[in-house]
């Protein structure tokens, strides 16, 4: 029987600081399972995911080096719900399967699963507790514009496609406020790390009883 791992689902809107928070947990020796990294792996050169996409959309979906042309794929699915559904039905099970494999391979006391669309894609069903990194929408806009060199309109379009701040906070078990100084962020992470260590221990005790 597979050992039950205590899983924390870490999420937040665009430019909320999910990676920064995840890396602070990693400094305590906690393993990270990153959905974005896995999403890139399942469509890497030679992967089953990329081969299926090529068969479905044609050779034009590839760059000169045979890697995925992400811009071309985005253009194919952007205003086409049917094609987006096809793509999601292909990739989501692959990503989910690989995430769970990585969780099982983890050796840390608990695991942080970093998933930008945790609630939207119903992946919160895989975790024991949810942690939302929260910042104000106007801060999301300014940080994303600065980080990605995109227009305000583009950022607002992305925000509109995601769950609202209020919806996300309503679903959160724990919340980190990432609008202050780095030291405040670090202390919030430390407090939650202690909490998750205890919850992981409690889970192990209950499983073994």
From TrEMBL:
InterPro entries noted in UniProt: Depp_CoAkinase, P-loop_NTPase
Swiss-Prot/TrEMBL keywords: ATP-binding, Coenzyme A biosynthesis, Cytoplasm, Kinase, Nucleotide-binding, Transferase
Record keyword ATP-binding present: yes
GO molecular function: dephospho-CoA kinase activity
Major localisation: cytoplasm
Pfam family of the protein (one): CoaE
Binding site for ATP: 15-20
Main EC class the enzyme belongs to: transferase
Function: Catalyzes the phosphorylation of the 3'-hydroxyl group of dephosphocoenzyme A to form coenzyme A.
Family recorded in the similarity comment: Belongs to the CoaE family.
NCBIfam families: dephospho-CoA kinase (TIGR00152)
PANTHER family linked: BIFUNCTIONAL COENZYME A SYNTHASE-RELATED, DEPHOSPHO-COA KINASE-RELATED
Protein name: Dephospho-CoA kinase
């Amino acid at each position: 029987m597979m050992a039950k791992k205590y899983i924390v689902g870490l999420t937040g809107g665009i430019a909320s600081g999910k990676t920064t928070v995840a890396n602070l947990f990693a400094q305590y020796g906690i393993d990270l399972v990153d959905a974005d990294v896995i999403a890139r792996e399942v469509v890497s050169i030679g992967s089953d995911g990329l081969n299926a996409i090529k068969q479905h959309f044609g050779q034009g979906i590839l760059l000169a080096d045979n890697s995925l042309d992400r811009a071309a794929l985005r253009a194919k699915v952007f205003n086409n719900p049917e094609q987006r559904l096809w793509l999601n039905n292909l990739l989501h099970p692959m990503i989910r399967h690989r995430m769970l494999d990585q969780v099982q391979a983890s050796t840390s006391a608990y695991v942080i699963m970093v998933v930008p669309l945790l609630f939207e894609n119903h992946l919160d069903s895989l975790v024991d507790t949810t942690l939302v990194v929260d910042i104000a929408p106007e801060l999301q806009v300014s940080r994303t514009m600065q980080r990605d060199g995109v227009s305000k309109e583009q950022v607002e379009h992305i925000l509109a496609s995601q769950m609202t701040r209020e919806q996300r906070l309503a679903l959160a078990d724990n919340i980190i406020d990432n609008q202050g100084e780095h030291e405040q962020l670090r202390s919030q992470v430390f407090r939650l790390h202690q909490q998750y260590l205890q919850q992981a221990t409690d889970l192990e005790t209950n499983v073994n009883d």
